[in-house]
Here is the input.
Amino acid sequence: MWNCLKSDEDGGSIEALVKELGLSIRPRRRVTASAEPPTRAPLENQDAPYEWADALSRADSPQAVKVRDYLDSRGIGAAIRERAHVGVSGDRVTFPMRRAAANPWLQTKFIRYTPSGKSVEQTPGAEAMLWPAEWLDEHPTLPVLLTEGEGDCLLAMQESDGQYVAVAVTGGAGTVPRDLSKLAGREGYVAFDLDDAGRKGMDKMVAAPGQAGAPAAALDLAGLGVSGRGADLSDYFRAFGGTAAKLTAELERLRALGPDDDGLVAALADLMVQGDESAVQDFLPDMLTDEQIGELDPPAWTVHGWALIDNYTSIYGEPGVMKTFAILDLLRSVRAGVPWLGNPTVRGATLLFEGEGLTQLQPRIAAWNAYQELSPADLAPGLSGAVLGLLGPGAVLRLGILHSGTTIVNYPPCRNRT
Here is the structure.
């Protein structure tokens, strides 16, 4: 199936189409993931994580108060912070990491949050991990929600209502942890940020757990109503009315899609979910299964033998064979509910995108009305028979597909196709 959509050697019709639209279908890159945890020396000071957590809990210094207030402003409560042993060292938030509750601390991630962003420091030699790994042991039967950031993880777990367990991928969107052994045999869902790094990282993270016996699926936040470049799981809960129930319903929907062994669903997501700073368009909910297609209404004709409702019809011919007149005849026949070339029609609204100039329609419309012996009152009224001209200043903007808010695909007049 994948090679039908994408070939590294010579591509195909689908690849040509998506290139014309300014899109792309990327081949899935395989990321090596170990089913066994790598060995690593523990932190020299095993008491430090507890001391940092205690300092944040007491908040008896101006820096600790500032860190506490920042976490509070993000909706991350004291209880979930204490559960994850989040602390403060100077003006930095501390996130200590280990492989299990009874294991020694291995490394610490330090994040300094400022109005202009954040800076990250880590224990020398630190590697990407699943954090807090002990939560996976505490909830062995729950679905696993993989987040891009520690803050997203804390808020998602706080709001989980026992429906899933959230853990962060500590190396950022682009780095898959080597040790994914705790995901073996479990359902995993990757919910990374709505930006290029997040989408690419999600693609890698979805592929990797399968090699550790834990197939994962992409949980695109756009499908949950989240929009805005860089928007994340925290925004889902804080700015878009997100709840654990809604998120769990989306997990159920993804589960029903079945395994994504060959990456086809992720490839379609790349193609069909597009966004930028101002908007996100999500077409994935419009994808139907065989069962859903079988439940659709039976095919029905707008113009019997020529045009089905909710279907695409193409009429083509050489220049000068009166394609435009034939199309105009078809559309006005539908508006009037009269047969077109002897074929019954169902009366309804029509819209004509005219790329050859509007004034040339004047004599054709008059001739058609005279031949049919119809007046404007006999046609469906108003904009039910609208015509949109594609020529003139700025008219290129009137018909196109707006991709990622910037790219416009123009459909110019075509002499051999209507």
